[in-house]
Structure formats: C-alpha cells, structure tokens
C-alpha cells in the first residue's frame, strides 16, 4: 500500500514564475521562527520544529501581497492594514478505491493558512535614555562623529519591522471517503483524521526603501 505524504504550504501554494519580474513593491526582508503548538497529523505531514523562515515580502496598493522564500518561488496572497494572509485549499487521494473489496477509497482536503501582522518599530529617541544615539557623544564632528567627506551614511538607519502570526495545516477527509485505514492505529501514516499542524510565528525584518 502506498501512502501520500503531505507538504507544508510553502511547497504547495501556487507560485509566481521565478523568471518573471516580481510583482508589487518591496515591503522588507524577514527572518522568522515558528514553534509548533499542535501536531495531530503524525508522520503524514513532515513538520520541523522549530521552523526557520527567511523571506521577502511585497505588496500592491490593491491589497495583493507576495511572499517569497529566499532563493525560492513567489506566492500570492492578500494584505489589509498590515495583516498578510496566504492560503490555499487542495484535495488529495490518499488511498485508491478498490471495487473488488468494496472500498470507496480515501480522499482528503488540505487547507494551509499562513497569516501574520507586520509592524514598524519606532526608533529610539532622547526620551528613551536621556541622550540621543544611545548616550554616545558626537566627538566634535557632526553626524555621530563620522566625517561627511568619508562618504559614510551614518545619518540613515534602516527601518526595523516586527512580525507575529501563525501557520496552520488542516487535513479533513472528503464526504463519502473511508479514511479508517489511513489512521496510525491501523497502520496508516496519520495519527488521526481530521488533523492539524500549527506553528506560532515571530520574527524581525528590515524595510526595503525604494527611491
């Protein structure tokens, strides 16, 4: 008997061609980590813990958003008021029907949702520590002691962003399916059905400013 293993959403989402010009305007580059808070699917869903994500985020004024894992394909989603959502739903056949045994087969729907909020970290001010620039004196030279003729751009700091959210995978048998043989108690790869995998995500990023 051959079982189907399921991929997490960054492998199954419909993607933008890697050779095409990326759509939207850049939002930032991010490094996030996800900690598993639920895994009721078992071996059927390979799920590392923790989950490491390095990706780029883009958006359009019409609410479309684009997420691309560094070095990978680009996926389309939605953005509203700083909240980004990427989701997909697909159906899969886990076990073929067997009319000789009267077995109707097992098919499931897999729904993946990747959602998170991006916020801007406000830069520190004199009120934070009483002295600007972390309490370090200028040293007699404007712009934090760096000579303007050196070409150093010390007066411009990158905009820091924070990210928080979740990534979930839910797998539910289709109506009329018999997925009993797919459960681990009967030798199948699923710990249970329906089942769910969930991560809590957090991370930081740097805004990409377009001139």
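Sequence proposed for the structure above (211 residues):
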């Amino acid at each position: 008997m051959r079982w189907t293993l399921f991929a997490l959403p960054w492998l199954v989402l419909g993607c933008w061609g890697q050779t095409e010009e990326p759509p939207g305007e850049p939002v930032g580059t991010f490094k996030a980590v996800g900690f598993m808070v639920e895994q009721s699917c078992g071996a059927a869903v390979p799920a590392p813990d923790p989950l490491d994500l390095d990706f780029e985020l883009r958006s359009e004024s019409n609410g479309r958003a684009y997420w691309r894992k560094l070095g990978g394909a680009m996926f389309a989603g939605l953005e509203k008021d700083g909240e980004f959502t990427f989701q997909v739903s697909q159906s899969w056949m886990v076990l073929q029907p067997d009319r000789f045994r009267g077995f109707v087969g097992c098919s499931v729907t897999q729904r993946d949702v990747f959602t998170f909020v991006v916020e801007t970290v406000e830069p520190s001010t004199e009120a934070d520590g009483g002295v600007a620039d972390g309490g370090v004196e200028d040293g007699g030279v404007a712009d934090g002691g760096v000579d303007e003729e050196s070409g150093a751009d010390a007066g411009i700091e990158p905009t820091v962003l924070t990210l928080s959210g979740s990534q979930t995978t839910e797998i539910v048998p289709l109506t009329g399916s018999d997925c009993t043989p797919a459960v681990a108690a009967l030798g199948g790869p699923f710990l249970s059905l329906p089942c769910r995998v969930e991560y809590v995500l957090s991370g930081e990023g740097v805004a990409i400013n377009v001139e």
